[in-house]
Amino acid sequence: MTVPTIALNSGYDIPQLGYGVFKVDAAETERRVLEAFEAGYRHIDTAAIYGNEEGVGRAIAASGLPRDELFITTKLWNDRQAGDEPKKAIDESLGKLGVDFVDLYLVHWPTPQRGTFVHAWQQLVSFREQGLARSIGVSNFLIPHLEAIGRASDVVPAVNQIELHPAYQQRELTDWCLERGITIEAWGPLGQGKYPLLEEPVIVAAAAAHGKTAAQLVLRWHIQQGRIVFPKSTNPARIRENIDIFDFELTAEEMAEISALELPDGAGRVSSHPLEVN
Ligand code: NAD
To answer: I want to staple 267 with a disulfide (CB 3.0 to 4.6 A). Which of 110, 135, 182, 263 is the partner?
Structure first.
């Protein structure tokens, strides 16, 4: 299974589909990541707060895969944005992952009440210069947060990783990012299973037409819009299913029907709002 890549503004390529390990138990992470590698995934999305970087690291070591074939993302947690904490945090993450550098390091949330995300961003810029992270980006940043780091630094984030699925598409934010060369990573691409997305008639009908599952349909909808996704599953059959989306194409009509599932006024959001996480 060959996963297409997207060129980031850092000059590095990222596989458009990866395996996300949010809420994958530390004890089973190594096994699941190895299953993902076996299925053809080469991009893993973790975070310090997920508590499973060591399991990802064990899987990397056990896989025998060359480091340059892998794309590893991790994230700086909120309570480590200030002072010299970011450097300690990235060193801890690199140690747990057993790597000399990560491919992508993100500020996990802007946590606006702390007032430290601009400082954290400047630290990430230095990590890139030091070769600790090949690309750097942000997660859950809204336009004012992106503008604030833009005033303090010439380095444009490679990505903004945000909640995005058919019911909640954040179009103003995604358009703003794309106009400035910031690639969108969609977290919760399947709506975290929190609403009956996979039972939507238009999705079920299109899935049947293509001989695919509803989850594959939704992932394909993201891919055809140039987004990066890393669906999470601990079910080996679903891990394989979720990468098997590169042999069919949705029509323009099917794409529009799925896009029309957005709920008004942000009502489709299934997880935390960036202004509420501090
Ligand atoms: P998701 O949309 O990937 O949903 C995961 C759920 O979807 C699973 O628990 C399972 O119930 C279901 N599912 C997965 N594959 C399926 C299939 N083939 N058929 C039917 N159901 C299926 O949500 P997520 O895990 O929150 O998001 C994916 C990744 O995004 C995470 O693992 C993590 O890496 C990242 N993430 C980042 C943030 C952030 O703040 N930056 C927040 C949440 C998630």
So the answer is: 263
Give the separation between CA 222 and CA 166, rounded to whole angstroms. 9
How many domains in the chain? Answer: 1
Half-sphere exposure of 90 (CA within 13 A, CB side): 29
Task: Locate 68 and state its tokens.
Answer: 């340059």
* Ligand 1 centroid to residue 89 C-alpha, Å: 24
Closest atom of ligand 1 to CA, residue 106: 41
Residue 166, domain extent? 5-192+227-235
* pTM assigned to the model: 0.98
| Cross-strand pairs, 160 | 138, 184
CATH code, domain with 188 = 3.20.20.100
pLDDT tens digits, one per residue of 21-40 = 999 999 999 999 999 999 99
SS3 readout for 125-169: HHHHHHCCEEEEEEECCCHHHHHHHHHHCCCCCCEEEEECECCEC
DSSP state, residue 173: H
CA atoms within 13 A on the CB side of 25: 5
